[in-house]
Design goal:
Layout lengths: L1 H12 L7 E11 L4 E12 L2 E12 L7 E13 L3 E11 L4 E13 L3 E16 L8 E17 L4 E12 L3 H4 L1 H8 L11 E13 L2 E12 L5 E12 L4 E12 L3 E15 L1
Antiparallel strand pairs: 1-2, 1-14, 2-3, 3-4, 4-5, 5-6, 6-7, 7-8, 8-9, 9-10, 10-11, 11-12, 12-13, 13-14
C-alpha cells in the first residue's frame, strides 16, 4: 500500500521545488504477495506561493474468495503559503465501487520556515460498502464515517540531514469489529494492498533523510493498527533518489511490512520525476 499512504505526503513535500513551475511523475510498485500498483502524480505552481496537485493510481491484489480486486485512487489538492503560515486542502477517492469506497476530505494548517515545519491535520472520511453473500451472511449495503486528527513535523538537523514525524488517529461512527464481523473481513481479505488497510485506528511514521551531494537517501519506519480486526502492522522502507540530468530524478525503494494480519511482505518500487518552469 505504498502509494496510498505516501502520495499525499509526497505532493505536499515537493511544492517548494515547483515554484511557478511543475512536477510530473509516475511509477510502479510490486510486492511478494503478487500485489501490483501503478501511479502518476503532478504538481503545478500557479504563483510563487500557491500550488495545485493531483494524483491517480491503480492497484491489483489477489483475493481468496473472489476474483482479483482492482482499486482506484485519485487525489486533488491546493496549497497556499502566506509566509510563515500556510493552508493545504484536498479531496481523494479510493476503493472499488463493487465492494468498499471512501471519499476523503482533508485540511492542514501549517507553519514553516527554512529549517522547520509543523502542521495540524484533519481528515473526514466517508465510506460506502457493498458486501456479497458469504456462507450464511446475507448481502449488505451501507456506509459509515470517520474523523481523523493528527500532527506532522519536519526539521533540519544539519544542512544535509532532516527528520520528519507524523501521526493520525481516527474515530469511527460505528463499531466495525461488531457491526461487520465476518462479512467485512471476507470481503477485504488479508493482503498488503487489500481494502482492509484503509480502515485504520491510528498510524504513525518517522523519516530520516540524508542528502549526499545531489542524491538523497531516506529511511522510513511506521506502524498502524487496523480498525476492523485490531491487528498491528510495522513497516520499514529505504528510498534512494538519484538525479537524471538537470530536470529529472529516479527513485528506488525497498521495504518490508511485518503484519499480524497478512504476515511478512517485501515490496519494491521505481518512480520517475520530471521538473520544469522557473
Amino acid at each position: 500500500m505504498y502509494w496510498f499512504r505516501t502520495l499525499p505526503l509526497l505532493l505536499c513535500a515537493n511544492n517548494a521545488l515547483a515554484i511557478e513551475g511543475y512536477i510530473i511523475g509516475g511509477g510502479f510498485e510490486g510486492d511478494s504477495a503478487d500485489g501490483l500498483s501503478a501511479s502518476m502524480i503532478g504538481e503545478l505552481g500557479l504563483t510563487e506561493k500557491t500550488w495545485i496537485s493531483a494524483a491517480v493510481a491503480r492497484n491489483s491484489t489477489d483475493l481468496r474468495f473472489r476474483e482479483d480486486l482492482k482499486t482506484w485512487f485519485a487525489d486533488i489538492g491546493i496549497d497556499h503559503w502566506w509566509d510563515p503560515v500556510g493552508l493545504r486542502a484536498g479531496v481523494s477517492y479510493w476503493g472499488d465501487k463493487d465492494s468498499l469506497e471512501s471519499m476523503d476530505w482533508r485540511a492542514s494548517l501549517y507553519w514553516r520556515n527554512d529549517t522547520f515545519s509543523i502542521a495540524g491535520d484533519y481528515e473526514a472520511r466517508e465510506f460506502t460498502f457493498d458486501l456479497s453473500t458469504v456462507d450464511t451472511f446475507p448481502a449488505r449495503r451501507g456506509g459509515f464515517d470517520a474523523d481523523g486528527v493528527g500532527l506532522t513535523t519536519r526539521f533540519d538537523v544539519t544542512d544535509s540531514v532532516s527528520v520528519g514525524l507524523s501521526g493520525m488517529n481516527y474515530n469511527y461512527d460505528v463499531n466495525l469489529r461488531l457491526d461487520s464481523r465476518r462479512g467485512l473481513l471476507e470481503l477485504l481479505s488479508f493482503s498488503r494492498l487489500s481494502l482492509i488497510n484503509s480502515l485504520v485506528d491510528y498510524r504513525a511514521y518517522a523519516t530520516l533523510g540524508i542528502d549526499v551531494g545531489k542524491r538523497r537517501w531516506q529511511f522510513d519506519v511506521g506502524t498502524w493498527k487496523g480498525e476492523v480486526d485490531g491487528s498491528t502492522t510495522r513497516t520499514a522502507t529505504v528510498r534512494f533518489l538519484n538525479p537524471l540530468g538537470d530536470a529529472g530524478d529516479v527513485e528506488f525503494s525497498l521495504g518490508i511490512d511485518d503484519s499480524e494480519l497478512y504476515g511478512n511482505v517485501t515490496f519494491f518500487s521505481v518512480f520517475l520525476y520530471f521538473y520544469g518552469g522557473s
